[in-house]
Design a protein that fits this description.
The protein has 317 residues and is an alpha+beta fold. The chain has four helices and 15 strands. The chain is globular. The N and C termini lie far apart (65 Å). Keywords: Apoplast, Cell wall, Cell wall biogenesis/degradation, Disulfide bond, Glycosidase, Hydrolase, Secreted, Signal, Transferase.
Length: 317
């Protein structure tokens, strides 16, 4: 009997140790609140329909008849995709599964930009997933540049509430004249409201959609402390369930919402400029608050070392 009790105690100790190890490596794990599934409102499109090769063609591998794609970083090259069209406002989403293992210095970016057209005055809206060192898991960084703020990013960082290497999770950018919302599995992780305080840096020109994986050893993991270790290469990220709904436009310099209404790809008139997408719902506000209270660990608005005077939007209500 004593022997069985000792074995049971040993088993409990092993389980508790494993759980503590998981918490210490990933931070506290919480159950997310329920929110509306915005991604269910928009149709999927094949990767091959919406995106084209940007760089690293030999490291881009289409799967499932072009519905999914692997993009790879190895010691020869990273790789990336770019949308076949430019968009003025819209809903942009992809399901992404990140590389496993030791990934310090690796960055997977799902973002919008027009830096190729406006190199000195570009707009950009970023999801950047930063690889981890030691036992810490991937970090999600969001960022925004606009209209001349290209030297000053507006970064925020959160720890994810799941392991992003085990299965696909949805990363979504909603951008319209009212606000920019970053969502993970339909839960808002950040909202940038287009008010007077931020209007001068609010992205206002058409952008392309990008998905890239690359070596950011000089800054990505603890400020460049942990560079990419190619002993663990190749680093493979998988993307699918692509959803793009926005105003396709050739009018790069001065598009209008009227133009977007005319050219919207949805058959209905309820585009992302409509009232249903102008503000967060009560459920979404609860989700946003949950992320920021339990998972956010850096915001530029709290970085008084970096900013002697905080940007105006940080004190706006």
């Amino acid at each position: 009997m004593a022997f069985l009790q000792e074995k049971l105690l040993l088993f409990c100790l092993v389980i508790c140790s494993s759980l503590l190890s998981l918490v210490s490596s990933r931070g506290s794990v919480y159950q997310p609140p329920s929110v509306e599934r915005l991604t269910d409102r928009f149709p999927r499109m094949p990767i091959t329909r919406g995106m084209a090769t940007l760089f690293g063609a030999s490291n881009i591998h289409l799967k499932s008849n072009g519905s999914y794609v692997d993009i790879v970083l190895d010691n020869n090259s990273g790789s990336g995709l770019i949308s076949k069209n430019r968009y003025y406002h819209g809903f942009f989403s992809a399901a992404i599964k990140l590389p496993k293992g030791f990934t310090s210095g690796v960055v997977l970016a799902f973002y919008m930009s027009n830096a190729d057209v406006f190199p000195n005055n570009h707009d950009e809206v970023d999801f950047e997933l930063l690889g981890h060192a030691k036992r810490r898991q991937w970090v999600l960084q969001t960022n925004m540049y606009g209209n001349g703020s290209v030297r000053t990013g507006r970064e925020e960082k959160v720890y994810l509430w799941f392991d992003p290497t085990q299965e696909f999770h949805q990363y979504t950018i909603l951008w319209n004249t009212h606000h920019i919302v970053f969502l993970v599995d339909n839960i808002p992780v950040r909202e940038v409201i287009n008010n007077q305080a931020i209007s001068y840096v609010y992205p206002s020109k058409p952008m392309s959609l990008y998905a890239t994986i690359w070596d950011a050893s000089d800054w990505a993991t603890d400020g460049g402390k942990y560079p990419v270790n190619y002993k663990y290469a190749p680093f493979v990220a998988s993307l699918g369930e692509l959803k793009i709904e926005g105003c396709m436009t050739q009018n790069i310099s001065s598009p209008t919402t009227a133009e977007c209404s005319k050219n919207a790809t949805l058959s209905s008139s309820n585009t992302v400029e409509g009232a249903n997408y102008a503000r967060l719902s009560k459920q979404q506000m609860v989700g946003l608050s949950w992320v920021r209270r339990k998972h956010m660990f850096y915001s530029y608005c709290n970085d008084t070392k970096r900013y002697k005077t905080l940007p105006a939007e940080c004190s706006a209500h």
